[in-house]
Amino acid sequence: MSGKNYNDRWQGGVFPLSLGLFGLFWAALAVLKADQTVLPGPVEVARVFWFETASGRLPKDLLATLLRVAISFGSAMAAGALLGFLLGRYRVLNRWADPWVTIFLNLPALVLIVLCYLWIGLNELAAIVAVTLNKTAMVMVTVRQGVSSFDPALDDLAFVARLSPRERLRHLVLPQLAPWLAVAARNGIAVIWKIVLVVEFLGRSSGIGFRIHLYFQQFQTAHVIAYSVAFICVMLVVEHVLLQPWEARSNRWKTKHT
After folding, report:
1. 152: buried, middle or exposed (CB in 10 Å: 19+, 13-18, 0-12)?
2. Whole-angstrom Cα distance, residue 112 to residue 128?
3. Could you tell me the domains of the chain?
4. In the structure, what pLDDT confidence band is assigned to residue 3 with cuts at 50, 70 and 90?
5. Is the pLDDT of residue 147 over 60?
6. CA gap 165, 230 in Å, rounded
7. Which one of 2, 85, 157, 250 is most buried, counting C-beta atoms within 10 A?
């Protein structure tokens, strides 16, 4: 077996091994605490997880949360990418908009959620708007930085080659922007689902956040952890199946053309 194949296999086994070590660490802490009501072990949480899944509650609430995350994430990425591109391209616009960006970037998510509920009402629209507004500013800043780092030589090449706006977008803009979009997407997933849980915790009647709030009131720690683990597992899959390969491909293009 070549050294490269061995290293690839070793790297591929690190992820499940690390998760296994985390499970052992969790189990050891539960044994030391010796109180299932405070810190239930993995076996107890797995039992609750199975019961909630079999009852249909966990899949239903997980789907509701994932739907909110997907809509908010897509809206924030689209709006943030467009605005960030414009700010990065046009310095005058960026100068005027910079205070607005700073305000929205530093506005606490909790304040934005409460205001949206007060202004729009306790409904799905308010929940989606609150999460989208909170994340859009972060995407905007990342994309603006990416546009500012574009290689001017490629613009000159596009002018000489007489590329159409569509060809510029496809062959020059998007490949240069891809690594920055990947960073924005990774950070966005990590932030948005947490904000969605707060939105559900405060004012929705479905979703993982709603269930966590319900079981928190009933002091059922195993149920709180079981619902949290369900969503974390989904996010781990998204990170390793979608985001990391996307980031790796975009970085390969950047390395090849620099």
Report:
1. exposed
2. 11
3. 21-28+37-256 (1.10.3720.10)
4. very low
5. yes
6. 44
7. 250
Does 163 score more than 70 pLDDT? no
Count of all residues that appear for the chain in the document: 258
pLDDT (mean) for 39-47: 88
Q: Which residue has the tokens 């030589």?
A: 153
> Could you give the CA distance from residue 142 to residue 181 in angstroms, rounded to a whole number?
8
Burial annotation 2-15 (CB, 10 A radius, 16+ → b, else e): eeeeeeeeeeeeee
pLDDT at 60 over 90: yes
Number of continuous H segments (helices) and E segments (strands) in the chain? 12, 0
Judged on CB neighbours under 10 Å (0-12, 13-18, 19+), 142 is buried
Chain centre distance of CA 4: 32
